[in-house]
Amino acid sequence: MAARSILRLPGGEAVQVPEELIDRLKRKDPAAYEEFLSLYGKQLLSFGFRMCGDTEDAREVVQETLLKTFESIGDLKHSGAFKGWLYRIATNACLMRRRRSKFLKEEITLDEALPGPARTDPHWQRLPDEVVLGGEVKEKIREAILNLPDTYRSILILRDLEGLDTGETATALSLSEDVVKMRLHRARAKIRNDLEAYFQNGGRQAG
Fold first, then answer.
1. How far apart are CA 17 and CA 15, in angstroms?
2. What's the CATH number for 114-200?
3. Hey, what CATH class is 19-100 in?
4. What residue spans define the domains of the chain?
5. 160-188: per-residue pLDDT in tens?
6. 3 state DSSP class of 5
7. Facing residues of 116 across strands?
């Protein structure tokens, strides 16, 4: 049976900031702030919602990220590193909000959560051709991603939904590329297992 990538949620395009805009931000050009917000505010809001699972928290993350970005842009040495640098700020803002939440679940490792050895290629986005993503299935995917431990969820979101490469993700999270690859593999396996269990159950939550 053929397999394909079936999910690309809105806002999943990678952030690409023109070098000219970065230079204007460094010069504190007010128009540059407005342009940056217009171009990338929605992207950051989408990322914040995926990480936090709450619209209000996501809005706060955007505000905190923009403020920190505008305050610290002068510290950026190379414009080519902007994407990883920006997502590091956004990720830290998300994690801080989640850690302050009284509803935050206790962290578990994916070794505990996975029922058995991961597949060679456990990419969660590859599902059978006949699977059609309705609203209920998309919600199940969002739920599965949100239930990942923070250290795994952030990597999966940055790589598979935000479009960062391994190096950019490593920069954003202050990790080595090998650690990013290992955790991404485990995160994909956990999502895939959750989705397979969902479809085997007839596409409905167990009652």
1. 6
2. 1.10.10.10
3. mainly alpha
4. 19-100, 114-200
5. 988 899 999 999 999 999 999 999 999 99
6. strand
7. none
